[in-house]
Amino acid sequence: MRIMHVVRTLATGGTEMVVRRLISALEPSQFQQSVCTLVASPGSQPLRTICLERSADKAAFLVPQLTRLFRRERPDIVHSRNWATIEAVLAAKLAGIRTIVHSEHGRDLQTIGPQPWRRRMLRRISYACADRVFCVSEELREFYCEQLGMKPHFLDVIPNGVDAKQFSPNPAVRSAVRAKLAAGSDTIVVGTVGRLDPIKDHVTLLRAADLALRKGLDLKLVIVGEGPQRATLENELSGAPHLASRTVLTGESKNVADWLNSFDIFILPSLSEGMSNTLLEAMAVGVAPIATAVGGNREVVEHGHSGLLVPPGDAEQISDLIVQLTADAERLKALGRSARERVERQFSIERMVKRYGEMYSELMNSTGARSLSKDSVQRDSYVRDLRDC
Fold first, then answer.
1. C-alpha 237: how far from its chain's center?
2. I need a labelling partner for 17 at 20 to 30 A (CA). Which of 25, 240, 257, 264 fits?
3. Dihedral angle at the C-alpha atoms of 150, 154, 156, 157, nearest 10 degrees?
4. What is the pTM of this model?
5. Residue 166 lies in a domain
6. Domain tally for the chain?
7. Do 206 and 275 sit in the same domain of this protein?
């Protein structure tokens, strides 16, 4: 079956990572995959990638261009992701594509709160036109159902997954990377991985690290990633020389597993999350996580068992937990072990790929006809109501 994934870009990001993992893991004898991006992506791209070459800074009406593309390529399944590509649902419908899937993977600062009525209406129409709509976390499903006045059974949930073989504890790598950081045996290495974006709230992490240093910790802070907030972070560091001398901004890295192995504590200070791939990766490596109690973080981390949860924006509490875990090596190790066990049990890449493969196959085997289950009858009634509006 021919699947065309539609994403804004294939640059570094959680949604993009899921697409890349699907392309690598879905059985090629069953699934022929291609990717449509709206804006150009740096670096080499997987398989067949078609770019619409739209401006990254300007909004555009994409339905006509996407419709022409789908009519030309004739994929069996079009799978769009997030608000940026939601027009692909309507375009696929106009192009007569057999099966349409849309998924929600997270929110940015513009979509973190209540949605404008125009956006809600377009989402309602698009969801009604799609054959399957799902989110990567229960929290996202609850959010969109509440915003759109929909019942939960209209949206599925397929959590993200991580390769626990690629992301695994490696003592040799840990020693090598820590040596490059000049981190001694008593140094606590605290770090995070992710795009430098306002939604990730790296500024709170900087302030928490500064507080921990003032409490006398021998601490190194490592921030892996690149993005528009880099200048802001550099400005924060310029006003705190003591913290700056203990902080490493690595930029974008292809060796994320190596950096994670060097950490004693992984911190995710995000204001919002769908389901963080980097949180899953850190846990797979066996690093104890401290994450904000937002979005899918609460579904991934079992507070007190496989990690710790804190309110967003609370630098003081993050610093206190860093100090507490530094003083209790056994608890730190236990949290890391439980974190890896949880990923292996609930969030493996095999589990995620199996769910996607089953979904695509089920939709294709249905030949576009909806079964007469209670849920599908209710869904069809909902679609008719929207058309009447």
1. 27
2. 264
3. 10
4. 0.89
5. no
6. 2
7. yes
